[in-house]
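Page 42, continued from yesterday. The earlier attempt failed because a stray header line got pasted into the input along with the sequence. Redoing it now with the clean sequence only.
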Amino acid sequence: MISINTNTASSMAAYNLGGTNTQLQRSLQRLSSGSRINSSFDDAGGLAVSMKLSASIRRTEATQANVNNALSFLQTQDGVLKNADKILSRLSELAQMSSDVTKSSSDRGLYQTEFSALTNALSSLTTEEFNDVGMFDTATQTSLNVITSQDGGQSVSISIADLAGIVADINTGLANGISSAAGSTEIAALTTAIQDLANLRATNGSEQQRLTFAADMLAINKVNLESANSRIADLDIAAESANLARLNILQQAGTAMLAQANMATQSVLRLLV
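This time it went through. Structure tokens are written below.
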């Protein structure tokens, strides 16, 4: 049957061409964005998983920053403790020299002057802070809790070093200074203080190691999460480029066939003329 009111071939060609154009637009969008999923229509389930993975990646990055800041705290703390070690070593040296029986009272007085200055310097170290957080303020808190996993399930406790306690012990053990010949009690007090300081630095070092391992684990987890998210959301450029070429050919063919279908009804004119 030949009719002019209904052109089924033209309608079907237009329908196919419309579908091809829609797919071509999506292909262009994917290639321009580099993402396989640009809307929930593309892959609803994949989008949901990708969103959760992306959030986990962002939390992992934030956790990494927090752990690195905690490492900086410990490194700064250890720098102060290292300086305190130098002061304590000099104090013990002065106490030992003051015990020399050949030294006069005036000699010991000079030692005491330096000893007092160094003791004050040691006391001033106890007020050091890192970003307004006291590194030796054990009166406020004795430790800080550092979250080491993106889900908040793991943490590491880092110490607020009790340097003030060491200073207090020194002030008690050497209440009379070293202006008089220092005895075994004064030297023993300084030896104990040095040992206590060594314990603080050892604790600091172990905590730095723990946080370093935690930072490494976070970095590995971030890489794995990014890889998993990439497999879901990222576009295979090579495959999509081939798909784009296919759709371009289909579009051109569909346009040509639509034109042919529209011209087919013109044969009716030959019957009317």
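Notes: The longest helix spans residues 44-98.
Reminder to self: strip header lines before submitting.
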